């Protein structure tokens, strides 16, 4: 009861100060388990990238839809990562390019499946490579 009261008071304060906005309906969906896939490095050997991805959803009401399509979205990220060269996987600017490719591909797939893009962004919260 006390937690609920504190949450209600906090929400009221945010609304009064203007901090809460239309963007407060965003939700996040974590793709679990983390994604691990291979890429071909410059020595023609396999390297791997291991990452945790969070999807930023435009409207919290679409959370169930994203959860339903999670296997398709995981496959899309794996597909993008496995086609990238080592220099993109290992560099900061390349990683951002890969992330943006993932965003475009996921938006395209969701538009095809649901008629709406649904997500706003993809965040890589952990990113390891070898």
Query: Number of helix segments?
Result: 5
Choose one word for the global shape: elongated
Portion of residues in beta strands equals: 25-35%
Tell me the span between the first and last alpha carbons.
Answer: 49 Å
Reported for the largest beta sheet, the result is: 4 strands, antiparallel
> Which regions are unreliable across 5 or more consecutive residues at pLDDT < 50?
1-23
User: How much is the radius of gyration in Å?
Assistant: 18 Å
Q: How many domains would you count in the coordinates?
A: 1
- How do the helices and strands follow one another from N- to C-terminus? HEEEHHHHE
Q: What is the averaged pLDDT score?
A: 83
CATH architecture: 2-Layer Sandwich
Count of distinct strands:
4
CATH class: Alpha Beta
> What portion of residues is helical?
40-55%
> Which class do the helix and strand fractions yield?
alpha+beta
CATH homologous superfamily assignment: Band 7 domain
CATH topology: Tetrahydropterin Synthase, Chain A
List the helices and strands and how they pair.
Layout: H1 2-17, E1 27-30, E2 35-40, E3 46-57, H2 63-68, H3 70-82, H4 86-90, H5 92-114, E4 119-129
Antiparallel strand pairs: 1-3, 2-3, 3-4
């Amino acid at each position: 009861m006390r937690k609920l009261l504190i949450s209600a008071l906090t929400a009221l304060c945010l609304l009064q100060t203007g901090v809460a906005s239309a963007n407060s309906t965003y939700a996040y969906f974590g793709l679990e388990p983390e994604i691990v896939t291979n890429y071909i490095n410059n020595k023609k050997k396999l390297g791997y990238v291991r990452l945790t991805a969070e999807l930023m959803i435009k409207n919290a009401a679409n959370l169930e839809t994203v959860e339903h399509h999670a296997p398709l979205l995981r496959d899309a990220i794996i597909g993008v990562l496995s086609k990238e060269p080592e220099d993109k996987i290992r560099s900061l600017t390349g990683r951002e390019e890969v992330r943006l490719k993932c965003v475009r591909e996921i938006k395209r797939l969701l538009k095809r499946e649901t008629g709406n893009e649904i997500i706003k962004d993809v965040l890589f919260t952990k990113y390891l490579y070898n």
